[in-house]
Write the structure tokens for this entry.
Amino acid sequence: VKELLEKEKVEHETLAILGSNPARALKDIAKKEGFDLIVVGSRGLGSAASLLLGSVSRQVVVGAECDVLVVKK
């Protein structure tokens, strides 16, 4: 995705989020910086696995104040 954005000259910021709650950190940064869109990857574990394990992408989708694009890996 980063290469495509650079090729098309789309303004973007790439972040690597570390810590115990990456979904909260990503939502907080997006709100603070005024992001228009968050793009997150999904491992595609399926609905049962994501309910049991908790899904960062699902948490971001539910709580973000901007649009979220989930890209399946």
In short: The chain is about 45% helix and 15% strand. The longest strand covers residues 37-42. The beta strands are 37-42, 67-72. The chain has a mean pLDDT of 85.
